[in-house]
Every structure is written in structure tokens, then in C-alpha cells.
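Researcher: Sequence recovery benchmark, item below. Answer with residues only.
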């Protein structure tokens, strides 16, 4: 299976009394549809040399990103906080954390990136509510960059996961799960033990929608109330709707349906489940509403999407979404 990544674009005006005078900062939202049975995607190879040119935009993901730097040095920028990296370092970016990476002047650092849904992949191991909460790696009080010389176990475990995914020897999936369990607990130990972790900062440019985006990502299949989402973000419903549209370029209801349809696309491509079952699984109350919403967003019916060759045309993507088959090259 080839994993799909969608890209939602929106603009943020960083706050303050001088809002009208400050330029809009464009941030890219990359949505990875991970394999349902094994939600881990590796981006690796010689094409993953990161340029020394700083990107003009940040980006964030809907899942956890673990990166391993193989060569040279550079800067990881999380929001506007810079972290200097070198070969052997490991970066860990929770979902919905805006960031970008660029190499030192005159260099092109080589990376491997792992995108993973820890909750789904390790559900048999993470039993407690504390574990499930930690599995999302909350952005607060977080160490985003682990120096290889300071955290050799994290470097070893992350590199071992990448090696297993590259070689795909027999039982590699079981091996990856075991390694990720060890990596998960090694990271959580480091977070708890770090006395010099940066304090939580109340930032004007923090993504105030993060609680709502997290909730939608995990509960899209349920009935989601806009009032509840607004309360999670400590906003009035009216202000939440206005802010959500200005940031995400879509109203909450449409964004929830986009999330559902994105998941449905993965299920249509990777399972033999009936369209009715898929519609119910992703949260639609009827197959007719699912078909109508699917065709509005994708351009064809679910059955045509599943069997495009038999229909004589390729599915049409919604104009608000730029779709890529994975990320075949780093930002330039």
C-alpha cells in the first residue's frame, strides 16, 4: 500500500497590538493516512537531503514524527524556537506542532523520517489512560531534539526501527512494535527526568485549535459537537467558528467530514469492507449521506474510487486539498 498525505493550507496572523501591520505566516497541514493494520510510514533514502535554505513556511502533521539525522548539522525550528542538530541526533515532533528543518550553510544533512500512530500501533501494550495520554506526546514541556551523545538509547532504538522498516525481514512488524515500545518508554523517561526542560510558555502564536484538532483526529467517527470543540479551546462558539475558518480554511463541520472521507479513502483502498460498513465506521449516519459527501469532496462515488480503472477516469480531488502520494522529496 502507498500511504497518502494530504496538505491543508491556511494562514495565521500572529497576534498583538500590531496585528494589522504584521505579515501573514503560512503554515502547511500535512495529513498522513497511515495503514490501518500497521500505522507506521518510513520516508528514507538519498532524496532526503535537507537544504540549507530555510523554508518560508512551517508545517505540522496529524501524527507523531520521529526523525534521525545521519549527516552534517543544521537547525530545527519549532514555532520560533531554534534547536541546533548534528549527525546522530533524534527529533520528536508531536502532531499539530508547527516546525521546519534546514541544514547549516553550505551543507545538506541526510535524514530518515518515521510517521507513526503510537496509540493504534501499541494499543496492546499501552493499557492505562496515562499511557494513552503520553502516547500522543503532548507539546507542553516537551524535548523536541535528543542529542545522540546524551541519549544513546533513543538514538539506537530509533535507528533500529528505521533499519527494520527498510529491510523488512520476516516478522519485521513485530520487531518494530517491540522497538517502539522501548523507544516510547525511553522518551517518556527522558521527559520526566529532564530537570532543564524548557518551561511551558504562553505564546500568542500557539495554535489555540490544538485541543479541537486532537479531538477530531481521535473522535471523527463519533458525533462531534462544535460547542464542545469550542469549550475545549476556551472560546465562545461564535469566536471558535470564526477562528477555525480563518485558520483551517474550512468550517468545523466540513473539516470533520474531510477527516472522515480521508479515512474512508484509506479503507476503500486497503480493505474489502462494504461501503455501508465503511460509512458507519467513519461516522456517517447513513450510506446516502456518505455517498453524497464523498462525491462532493472526491468527485466520484466510493465504488468508483475503489475501482477507478473500471470507470475510465481517475478520482478528482477536492480543490481545497492538495494530495501527494507520500512525500517523495523534502522541502526545497
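Model:
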Amino acid at each position: 500500500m502507498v500511504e497518502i498525505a494530504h496538505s491543508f493550507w491556511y494562514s495565521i496572523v500572529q497576534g498583538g497590538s500590531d496585528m494589522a501591520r504584521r505579515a501573514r505566516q503560512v503554515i502547511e497541514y500535512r495529513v498522513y493516512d497511515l495503514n490501518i493494520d500497521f500505522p507506521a510510514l518510513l520516508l528514507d533514502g538519498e532524496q532526503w537531503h535537507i537544504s540549507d535554505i530555510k523554508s518560508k513556511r512551517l508545517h505540522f502533521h496529524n501524527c507523531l514524527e520521529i526523525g534521525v539525522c545521519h549527516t552534517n548539522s543544521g537547525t530545527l525550528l519549532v514555532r520560533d524556537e531554534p534547536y541546533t542538530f548534528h549527525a546522530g541526533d533524534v527529533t520528536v515532533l508531536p502532531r499539530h506542532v508547527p516546525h521546519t528543518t534546514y541544514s547549516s550553510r553550505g551543507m545538506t544533512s541526510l535524514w530518515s523520517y518515521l510517521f507513526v500512530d503510537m496509540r493504534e500501533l501499541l494499543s496492546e501494550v499501552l493499557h492505562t489512560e496515562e499511557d494513552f495520554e503520553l502516547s500522543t506526546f503532548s507539546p507542553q514541556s516537551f524535548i523536541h531534539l535528543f542529542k545522540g551523545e546524551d541519549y544513546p538509547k533513543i538514538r539506537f532504538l530509533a535507528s533500529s526501527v528505521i533499519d527494520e522498516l527498510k529491510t523488512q525481514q520476516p516478522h519485521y512488524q513485530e520487531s518494530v512494535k517491540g522497538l517502539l515500545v522501548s523507544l516510547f518508554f525511553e522518551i517518556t523517561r527522558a521527559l520526566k527526568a529532564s530537570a532543564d526542560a524548557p518551561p511551558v510558555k504562553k505564546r500568542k502564536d500557539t495554535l489555540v485549535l490544538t485541543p479541537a484538532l486532537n479531538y477530531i483526529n481521535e473522535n471523527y467517527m463519533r458525533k462531534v459537537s462544535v460547542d464542545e470543540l469550542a469549550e475545549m479551546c476556551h472560546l465562545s462558539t461564535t469566536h471558535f467558528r470564526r477562528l477555525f475558518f480563518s485558520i483551517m480554511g474550512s468550517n468545523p463541520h466540513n473539516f470533520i467530514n474531510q477527516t472522515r472521507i480521508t479515512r474512508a479513502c484509506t479503507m476503500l483502498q486497503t480493505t474489502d469492507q462494504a461501503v455501508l460498513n465503511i460509512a458507519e465506521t467513519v461516522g456517517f449516519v447513513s450510506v446516502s449521506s456518505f455517498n453524497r459527501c464523498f462525491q462532493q469532496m472526491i468527485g466520484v462515488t466510493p465504488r468508483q474510487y475503489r475501482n477507478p480503472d473500471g470507470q475510465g477516469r481517475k478520482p478528482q480531488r477536492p480543490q481545497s486539498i492538495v494530495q501527494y502520494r507520500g512525500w517523495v522529496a523534502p522541502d526545497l
